[in-house]
């Protein structure tokens, strides 16, 4: 079967490396431009990437449009050397993977694979993607029938399993172009921090001699995207909000709204519902869904009707508070059948006892807040210290960058300053880690001091085989092949990242990373 699949895919390949086949420019001399800083694109738009210099297979000397470094393997450098929009609807991404070490050869397939879908044997660069800010989605390579992705295949493309010290290989992925025809985009990989502001060229892609890239129009392919949901919550745990760019889902705590086993709203419930009603008034949609949920305590005979009565009570209260005309509210109870969190902890159960109100995202959110003065490097607000297994651990925030679409990228470095190896597991010990499919560095919160709102790492929503939805953290993964990411040798330092929603008016946010002290960090 595998050999048949390879033959079918190979028959649909378009050779893009030769000038005669695609009218591409002839080979040019390599650029001597210095690479951009880690995790960033150049400040100015670079010229369209020139062809690679002829030489040994895999040696690509094109200038980098952006670069990042693997969190797990510091000697694995990833550079974007080509990002081309094809036919106005497809995107060809080419990445150069370099082993910057001086002795050890590195495997690359495990690090570049997409862990949000089963791939069987790991040999593809399936984790290359872009962040579509306008659609609030994470775009991955197309998937043809009976094949994981339109991307580099270790076997078919003759890339080998390892990258020798000082050597590089170039891999590709073919995926949908981001919506809105943007001039730049954020390139994402499973390896390290996302790379913002990478320029997109509308010229034909130029590749290494002999490299072939699949034509996405040659056969039926499936689009693979992950909806990016950004959660936030009130400090008093009264409600939490999930924003997917289209809808808002506000989960109101039943512990705040109701007494135990009751469906009568408490005195405090009105203040909580007033904020929700204000957001509904600002929404462009006419339909509001109110759903009641319970934890796993009790039986369905108790939980199902109780969750229905609670949803109906919230619907009635919101109807009186909403001032906009033409809004239709529907209520339904689901009992304990749709948990957002695991029911094996008290915190998980608390969060599952909720009434969720879902409606079209408001065009205008809460009124602008008064900005807090920005912190600078000199303020000493970007570093923290801690302990792990008796070893001193240092943390340094390297950036809190505003991205298009109301998103933000936080990057930070953690270093073992001791003389012995230590695990720093606190990065994944978040109270809501149980909502994710796998463990990740999700123990981070951003707080807007002016509005007293907390922001949590984004979640990638993936349809599951059982019809449910799995969530993956939009942050550094610390499971599977990256299980040792939280292990630090003496003097070892790693860079981590997370995606968040960022309030429009905030110039500074309070950042709490794991057990380190809270920092006041400027938004770039």
Automatic annotation (TrEMBL):
It comes from the Bacteria. Residues 364-377 have a biased composition (Polar residues). Residues 27-63, 360-390 are annotated as: Disordered. The keyword Nucleotide-binding does not apply. Residues 33-49 have a biased composition (Pro residues). Residues 245-363 form the OmpA-like domain. Gene3D superfamilies: OmpA-like domain. It is found in: Cell outer membrane. It comes from Nonomuraea rosea. The keyword Membrane applies. Residues 50-59 have a biased composition (Low complexity). This is OmpA-like domain-containing protein. Keywords: Cell outer membrane, Membrane, Signal. Residues 1-28 form the signal peptide.
């Amino acid at each position: 079967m595998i050999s048949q699949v390879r033959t079918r895919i190979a028959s649909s390949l378009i050779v893009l490396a030769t000038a005669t086949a695609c009218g591409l420019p002839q080979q040019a001399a390599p650029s001597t431009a210095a690479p951009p800083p880690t995790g960033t694109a150049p400040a100015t738009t670079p010229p369209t990437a020139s062809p690679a210099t002829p030489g040994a297979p895999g040696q690509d000397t094109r200038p980098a449009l952006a670069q990042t470094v693997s969190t797990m393997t510091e000697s694995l450098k990833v550079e974007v050397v080509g990002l081309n929009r094809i036919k106005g609807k497809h995107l060809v991404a080419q990445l150069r993977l370099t082993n910057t070490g001086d002795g050890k050869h590195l495997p690359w397939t495990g690090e570049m694979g997409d862990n949000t879908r089963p791939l069987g044997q790991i040999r593809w660069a399936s984790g290359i993607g872009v962040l579509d800010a306008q659609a609030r989605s994470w775009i991955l390579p197309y998937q043809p029938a009976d094949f994981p992705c339109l991307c580099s295949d270790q076997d078919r493309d003759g890339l080998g399993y390892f990258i020798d010290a000082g050597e590089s290989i170039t891999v590709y992925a073919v995926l949908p172009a981001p919506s809105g025809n943007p001039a730049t985009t954020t390139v994402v990989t499973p390896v390290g921090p996302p790379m913002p502001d990478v320029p997109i060229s509308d010229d034909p892609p130029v590749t290494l001699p002999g490299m072939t890239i699949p034509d996405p129009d040659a056969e039926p392919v499936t689009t693979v995207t992950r909806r990016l949901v950004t959660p936030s919550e009130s400090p008093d745990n009264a409600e939490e909000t999930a924003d997917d760019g289209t809808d808002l889902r506000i989960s109101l705590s039943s512990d705040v709204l109701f007494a135990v086993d009751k469906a009568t709203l408490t005195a405090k419930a009105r203040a909580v519902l007033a904020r929700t009603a204000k957001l509904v008034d600002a929404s462009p949609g006419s339909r509001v869904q109110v759903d009641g949920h319970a934890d796993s305590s009790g039986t369905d005979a108790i939980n199902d009707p109780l969750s229905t009565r609670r949803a109906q009570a919230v619907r009635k209260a919101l109807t009186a508070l909403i001032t906009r005309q033409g809004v239709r509210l529907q209520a339904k109870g689901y009992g304990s059948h749709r948990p957002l969190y695991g029911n094996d902890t008290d915190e998980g159960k608390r969060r599952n006892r909720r009434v969720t109100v879902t409606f079209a995202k408001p065009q205008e959110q809460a009124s602008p807040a008064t900005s807090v003065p920005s912190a600078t490097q000199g303020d000493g607000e970007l570093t923290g210290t801690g302990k792990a297994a008796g070893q001193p651990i240092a943390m340094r925030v390297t950036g809190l960058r505003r991205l298009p679409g109301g998103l933000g990228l936080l990057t930070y470095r953690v270093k073992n300053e001791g003389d012995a190896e230590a695990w720093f597991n606190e990065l994944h010990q978040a109270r809501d880690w149980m909502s994710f499919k796998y463990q990740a560095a999700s123990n981070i919160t951003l707080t807007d001091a002016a509005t007293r709102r907390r922001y949590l790492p984004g979640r990638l929503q993936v349809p599951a085989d059982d019809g449910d939805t799995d969530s993956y953290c939009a942050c550094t993964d610390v499971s599977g092949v990256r299980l040792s990411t939280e292990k630090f040798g003496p003097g070892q330092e790693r860079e981590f990242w997370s995606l968040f929603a960022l309030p429009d008016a905030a110039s500074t946010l309070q950042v709490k990373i794991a057990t380190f002290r809270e920092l006041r960090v400027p938004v770039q």
